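Good morning C.,

I know you're traveling, so I'll keep this short. The sequence:
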Amino acid sequence: MHKPLIIHDPVHKTIILDEFEQMLLNTRHVQRLRNIQQLGLVDHVYPGANHTRFEHSIGTMHMASVIGKSLGLEPEDIRKIRAAGLLHDVGHSAFSHAVEYILKRDDSLRPVVDGRKIVRHEAFSKHIISDLLPQDNYISHYVEKEFGVEAMDFFREIAQIATGDFLSLEKPYLAQIIAGDVDADRIDFLLRDSYHTGVSFGLIDVDQIIGHLIIEDGRVVLGSSDDSGYGQDMALTAAESLLISRAHHYTAIIHNPKTQATRVMLLHALEDALVDFRAEYGLEHTQQELVRFFTEYNDSDLLNFIRQHASERSLQLLSELRNGDIYIPISRLSQKTLSPSTRMALSTIARHGAASKKLETLLTKELGDVLIDLSVASGVPKSMRIAMGGEDSFFYDESALANGLVRAISRQLSLTVFVNSAVLPSMGDGSGSDKLKEAVNELSPKLLRFIRTEQYLPIEGIILLFFGVHSTFESETVNYISIPRLRHITWVYRSIVALHKLPKLVHLFDYNFHERYGFPYSDKVFEDIQILVAMGIVDEDLRYYEKGGRFRQSYEYVLTWDGLEYAKVLANAYGPEFDAIMEYLRVNKHSIPRDIVTIPLSRYSSKKR
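The C-alpha cells, ready to paste straight into the viewer:
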C-alpha cells in the first residue's frame, strides 16, 4: 500500500494526501503553483504575504473534504471534491490576476483554446484538467482502475466541479462546495490571506459556517434541523461573518493604494513587453505565448519575459518594484467623491477592459507622466439559498446585513493617479483630485458613447427597463411627483427573458438564465442590479411581509433622480431599442407589480445635489 503524505499546514494543521492525490500533487501543473504568489505583489504592503497558490490549493482540498464529510457525502464524492479542490487553480496565471487584466483590456490578444477565446483562468483550469491530465498514462490507468470510469469522463467531471459548472453536473452540489458563494476556496483564502497578511478583520467561524450547510433538492443551502427558528438565525449569522470578512478583504488588501500601485506598475510593464513581442513574432505566436502564461509560466518566468521584451521605461518600472520604490498616489476618486452619473459611467467602463485602458490613456495625456488605475470589486456573491420553514429563499433576501454587504462590495470603486516619488514635489500641490475629477467628468460620457458604437452594454438595458417602467406610470403636479416602485425583482428577470426574444433587443439583453429555483434567474442580472443600487441609479427599499407564520423581507426598486437623468441620455442613445421596450411595457402594463409612491418633487429631485 502506498504511504500517505502528511503535510503540516499553518492554517489547517495536519493534512493527509492519499496515493491519487499525491499523483496529482506531483504533476507539473500543480507544482507550477509553488512559484505563483497567492496575492501577487501584496507583500510590498504586507511583508508576510508570500504564500502561494500551491499551499492554497492544498488548503482548498482539505476544506472541501471537511465540508463534504459534514454534508454526509459518499466517500467517492469526497475524493472527487478533494481532487477538484487541489486542481481548481492549475490554470491560474502568474502574479495573481495580472494577465487576465491584459486580456480584458485587449481582446485581440485573447488565446483560442478548443475553438473559444479565453479570458479567465477558470477556463484554462478546465482545459488542463479535462484535456491535459488524461494524457498522463500513469494517472489515467490509475483512475480507470480505482474509479471504474474512463479517464476522460472522470476528469471532465472534476473540471466541472473545480470551476463551479454546477448546471452541467448530475450532482450540482459538488461544484458548489468548490466554487459557490460559501465554498472551500473562499474559506481557505480568507483564512490564509488573513494569517499571512496579519489582517484579522471579520474573522470567520468555520465550524459554524460548515455546520449550517445542508443539501436540499440537489443544492447546497444554509439550513438547520432546529425548528425553533434559532437554527436559521445562527445559519444566517455564520454566513454573514464570511461576507463581512470578504468585504474587509477587498478594502484592506485588494483596494489598498499601495497594492494598486504595484499592480499598475507590473501591468504597464507587461503590456509594453507584449507590444514588443507581438511586433517581432506576430499575433498568433503572441496568443500561443499567452497560453503558456496560464499553463507553464510562474512569477519568475513572467518577470523574465518582461525583461527580455520591455522598453527602457518598463525595465525601470521593474527595477523600482524590485527596489521597493513604489509609485505614490497623488489623487484618488471613489464612490464617495463622485456623482452617481459619473460613478455609473466609471463602473461600466471599468468592467469593459478596452474602455478602461482607453480612459487611462486619455487621462495620462491630460495629466502628464503618471500611471492610472481604475478598479472595481468583483465576484459579488449571488446565489446562496437558505432553507426557511420547508422552502428556501435567497440568503440576501433573508439577511438585511448580507444585502448591505453585497451592496458595499459592489460600491467599491476607485480611480487613482500614481507618480514616481521623485516627481511628487512638483505634482503634490493639492489640485490633483480636482483636475482628475474635471477630466473624468468630461471624458467618461464620451468614452461610453464610443463603446456603444461597437457593442451593447446589457447593464444599460436594465437601466432602460427601469426608465420605461418609470415613464409608463410617472405623473407630476406642481409640487408633487408620483413614481412607480417595483415590488418583485423576479419580474425584472422574467421581463428580460421576454425582451431578449425580441429581434431588436436580443443583444442588449444578452444574459444567461436558468430555472433551478423555480423561476428564471441570472447571476449576472442580480449582480448588475446591485451595481445600479450601489452607484445610486436605483434605490432599493426593504419591505417586510408575513408568509407561513413568519415575517420575511423583500426588496422593492425605484429609479432615483440621478438614475432618471442618466436614463434619459441612454434613451437617446438607444432609440429603437427603447421604443421596443416601451411597446412591450404598454402591452404588459397591467401585469407590472408596482406601488405608486407620491412624494414632494423637491425631495425627489434634491437627490441630485
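Safe travels,
E.
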